[in-house]
Amino acid sequence: MKTSPSPPGAQRTDRSTVKIGALVPLTRPGWVEAGLHLLAGLELAVREVNDAGGIIGRPLELVVRDTAADPQRAAAAVDELARLGVAALAGEYHSVVARAAAARADALGLPFLCSSAVLDALTEQPTEWVARLAPAQSHGWQIYADFLLSAGHSRIAVAAQPSVYWASGARILRDYLAPRGGTVIELDMRALAPTAVCEELVDHRATALLLLVGHPEPAVSIVKSVRRDQRLAEIMIGAPAGQPEFAEWATLLGDDSAAVPFLRYLPERLSPLGVRVETALRERLAEAPSFVAFEGYDTIAVLADVLRSHGTDRARTAESWERVAVEGTRGQIQFSRTPGISVWQWAWAPIQVVDRDPAEPDRFRILHAG
């Protein structure tokens, strides 16, 4: 049963919790490490909101559901969370999963602030119910394409698995690079073993290989095969989707984990708020926080501000996206309508192309900024 909006003034004396539903991949085949970082950011922000008095005196409660990278499971979780009376939804990392959650939230009239997923078409039709913090894929991947061109790469192979997300990425790269003299060679990983990728790269005279595939496999096996092939000593391996961001990448690949450029949504220098949150996240995670952890924190910061200002009525929350102006860990967050994007969009989070330093794989080098 949906909860009814509280009468005016009732929120100041009602000590019941304000619930936010959190969608997070916490088991395989979901990207568990990304899910844990996202959850750490969400939980840290909830703790700080409650330490500061909650939502007009009411504690904020995070109701977490594991999506396991399964769109159907995510849609079912949205139904359950709506019945539990959550004021809004937060989270999700996987784009295809977030799309299913967004469609269900839109159908139910449940506000959803998507933390990390980047697929441009997060919903089929424009919606008032969904907003997003992460940059749209077309925006980020065009910046990555600029980086490729500036680094002298015009023959670019993409090792791709079938998915709406990977197909969208390949199309963005192809459409952006072709008018600028670039060629995208698609390698279908349904038909190729990682070792066979090497032959294709040699045959096509590619100078760069982009991993549009799952992590850890087949991404790790492809990197190992290419790195061991002396004919491909000069080829650049890239991962625009961000696989090298997390510690597991370095653990599995060792020295081979370095010099694989990827997209990261952080500024060159964090604000004082960002520095403070980074310290707290590092303590919570026992490792350096990824940009995904900052996305989680910023999601709750925005929702808490909206709930304090406009109450817990779902329709009023959805109506407030365009009035949001919140200091996040990575800049001032405001939402607008962006051409080609069906949801309210923060345009834009800061974007970098970075890699792990070959001399020190735990350190990141900024190669390009959007």
Descriptive report:
By secondary structure, this protein is α/β, with parallel strands linked by helices. Helix content is 38%, strand content 20%. It is built from eleven helices and 16 strands. The chain has helices at 32-51, 71-83, 95-108, 137-150, 164-177, 194-204, 219-227, 247-253, 272-285, 291-310, 314-319, and strands spanning 18-24, 60-66, 88-91, 112-114, 130-132, 155-160, 183-188, 208-212, 236-238, 262-264, 326-328, 331-333, 335-336, 344-346, 352-357, 360-369. It has a seven-stranded mixed sheet, sandwiched between helices. Helix 1 (32-51) crosses helix 9. The chain is globular. The termini are far apart. Mean pLDDT is 95; it is low at 1-14.
End-to-end Cα distance, whole Å, is 45 Å
Describe the biggest sheet?
A: 7 strands, mixed
Q: What's the order of the H and E elements?
A: EHEHEHEEHEHEHEHEHEHHHEEEEEE
Radius of gyration over C-alpha positions, nearest whole angstrom: 21 Å
Low-pLDDT sequence parts: 1-14
Write down the overall geometry: globular
Averaged pLDDT, please? 95
Strand content: 15-25%
Number of helices: 11
Q: Given the helix and strand composition, which structural class is it?
A: alpha/beta
Q: Percent of residues in helical segments?
A: 25-40%
Give a count of the beta strands, DSSP E runs of length 2 or more.
16
Strand order of the largest sheet: 2-1-3-4-5-14-13
Write the layout of secondary structure elements.
Blueprint (H helix, E strand, L loop, with lengths): L17 E7 L7 H20 L8 E7 L4 H13 L4 E4 L3 H14 L3 E3 L15 E3 L4 H14 L4 E6 L3 H14 L5 E6 L5 H11 L3 E5 L6 H9 L8 E3 L8 H7 L8 E3 L7 H14 L5 H20 L3 H6 L6 E3 L2 E3 L1 E2 L7 E3 L5 E6 L2 E10 L1
Parallel strand pairs: 1-2, 1-3, 3-4, 4-5, 5-14, 6-7, 6-8, 8-9
Antiparallel strand pairs: 10-15, 11-12, 13-14, 15-16
Helix pairs in contact: 1-9, 1-10, 2-3, 4-5, 6-7
